[in-house]
Amino acid sequence: MNPAPRIVLASASPRRSALLAQLGVPHLVRPAGIDETTLAGESIEQCVRRLARDKAQGVWDALNRDAGAGGLPAGLPAALPVLGADTVVVADGQLLGKPRDRADALRMLGLLSGREHEVLTAVALRTASGLQARWCSSTVRFRTLERAECELYWATGEPVDKAGAYAIQGLGAIFIESLRGSYSGVMGLPLFETSALLAGAGLAVLAGFRQSEQGEGEG
């Protein structure tokens, strides 16, 4: 029997779900589906923080509003904590989100080639006690890329839904000379910050492992 979910992940990203599973945190996936456009006068850092909060709050509101109409599976409390996250790549002060098309992806990879860029990731947790958030910044250096290999990389399909048009945990790793910061943050869910938020809400990761082991030994 699968363990009961401890939180809801407000993201359709399989990478974030896999990172939560790495922590041993059973969860449900409920994508937020919010508008991720930067607001007028908003800095990139402010945008990332706001989007993580909005995703967590939006799914929390939807689940509690729909609790009696299929918002959550039967037997689960309506007030399950909701985790939201947002990640952006920044180069030359430009926010690089998911590429619109092949040309946009090749433009992004060309901009990242042979230089450093910043990856900002914010994570927010909405509980019955309120909304808490943390964020991290990482610096990634790419080696110089040839146009032909960027075209081949696009053809793999990997860059399509990735901020900055690359995935550090996939083939995109061959482009990365160095990383200062959080590997999991570049992937999309910084585990240090996430575990701290969970612990603050009484959902300590290691305690969850202990409870899981005790459950498996019963009976």
Mean pLDDT: 89
Unreliable residue stretches: 214-219
Rg, please?
19 Å
Please provide the count of β strands: 7
Shape: elongated
Q: Could you say what the CATH architecture is? A: Alpha-Beta Complex
**Topology order in helix (H) and strand (E) letters:** EHEHEEHEEHEHHH
Walk me through the structure.
The protein has 219 residues and is of the alpha/beta class. 36% of the residues lie in helices and 22% in strands. It contains 7 helices and 7 strands. Strands 1, 2, 3, 4, 5, 6 and 7 form a 7-stranded mixed sheet that branches. The longest helix is centred in the first third of the chain and has 22 residues. It is elongated. The C terminus is likely disordered.
Quick recap:
This protein has 7 helices and 7 strands, in the order E-H-E-H-E-E-H-E-E-H-E-H-H-H. The chain has 219 residues and is of the alpha/beta class. The protein has a single domain (7-217), classed as Maf protein (Alpha-Beta Complex).
Question: Can you lay out the helices and strands and say which pair or pack?
Answer:
Layout lengths: L6 E3 L4 H9 L4 E3 L14 H22 L16 E10 L2 E3 L5 H11 L3 E12 L2 E13 L4 H9 L20 E5 L2 H5 L3 H10 L4 H13 L2
Main attributes of the structure:
alpha/beta, Maf protein, single chain, 7 strands, seven-stranded mixed β-sheet, 219 residues
